[in-house]
Amino acid sequence: MTDCQHCHKPTKQASANMLCANCREDYWTMIYQLGHVQLPTLRSIMLRQAHIGTPAHTPNKGNAPLPIDVHAQDLIEESEAWLAEQAGKIRAAYAGYDWRKAWYAIISNKHTILTMSTAADDYAALEHITRRNEQALTPEDELIILGTCPNCHSMLTGTPDAESVTCQDCHSEWAAPAIKAARDQRLWQVQITGTPSDAAKELKRYGLTISRNLISQWLKRGKLHATPTEHKRQYTFNLGELAALLDCHR
Ligand SMILES: [Zn+2]
Ligand SMILES: [Zn+2]
After folding, report:
1. Which of 147, 168, 213, 217 could covalently link to 183 via disulfide, CB atoms 3.0 to 4.6 Å apart?
2. Could you give the CA distance from residue 70 to residue 67 in angstroms, rounded to a whole number?
3. Whole-angstrom Cα distance, residue 22 to residue 66?
4. What pLDDT was estimated at residue 91?
5. What is the mean pLDDT of residues 1-27?
6. If you measure from the C-alpha of residue 11 to the centroid of ligand 2, how many angstroms do you get, rounded to a whole number?
């Protein structure tokens, strides 16, 4: 028994590259998706000369988030470079193929790709590329604010169930749960003035789902210490308190 070089679980497979059966399957699906879905989509976006991602809107108070600024061209180049590199490992001459031919070469050499001595590293590199592509191809309203990059303080966004996150600015990689925990701590410093519905919408940007009715109920029962304003139904909410109450409620 040895450990899979990717998921680090014990595996019985005696192959040279040490990827377990599950990881091989996931790796292969990822390769397939890259050439079948992601690259064609990114290229059609580039042809329309559209930039991916619109600037995120600014919350009422607190840090103004940086716009999501990932360009299709960047992602395409990275994806194509990965394909060219793998194709070149099958046969040196394949390295000069365009991306589609390179992808076909890879798809028709499954065994070679999956048992390559560099498979674990190649898989890790592809995961990174795929995650960036996925994020760029996810509509902005499905992305949430995961937190702030500890290295360069840029805003980190991702899908709600992301396990890790890559900073678009400094390219460092972080574990999503730790980034979110730090974010929830910082929410105590963020106040928002508005109706319960505004507060619910703001929390949704952080992937925290709460109904405006529940917020109103908490206000009525005195569970929530929001400060009333001179405007009807408008309060100053502390997002940290809301997040903490929501956590207890679940
Ligand atoms: Zn594995
Ligand atoms: Zn960063």
Report:
1. 147
2. 9
3. 37
4. 95
5. 81
6. 35
* C-alpha to C-alpha distance for 54 and 70, rounded to whole angstroms: 10
ipTM: 0.64
Domain boundaries, the chain: 2-141, 190-249
pLDDT, greater one: 14 or 128: 128
Q: How far is the CA of 21 from the centre of ligand 1 (A)?
A: 7
Would you call 13 helix, strand, or coil by DSSP?
coil
How far, in Å, from the CA of 3 to the mean position of ligand 1? 8
Report phi then psi at 183, rounded to 5: -60, -45
Tell me the HSE value of 126 on the side-chain side, using a 13 A CA sphere: 28
How remote is the CA of residue 168 from the centroid of ligand 2, in Å? 7
* Ligand closest in space to the Cα of 8: 1
Ligand having the closest approach to the CA of 2: 1
The ligand that comes nearest to the alpha carbon of residue 169 is 2
CA of 166 to the centre of ligand 2 (A): 8
Kindly provide the residue ranges of all beta strands, DSSP E only, lying in the chain, ordered along the sequence: 2-3, 10-11, 144-148, 155-158, 164-166, 173-175, 191-194, 227-228, 235-238
Residue 158: phi and psi, rounded to 5, are -175, 180
Q: How far apart are CA 59 and CA 186, in angstroms?
A: 14
Ligand nearest to the CA of 151: 2
State the average pLDDT over residues 236-243: 93
CA of 8 to the centre of ligand 1 (A): 6
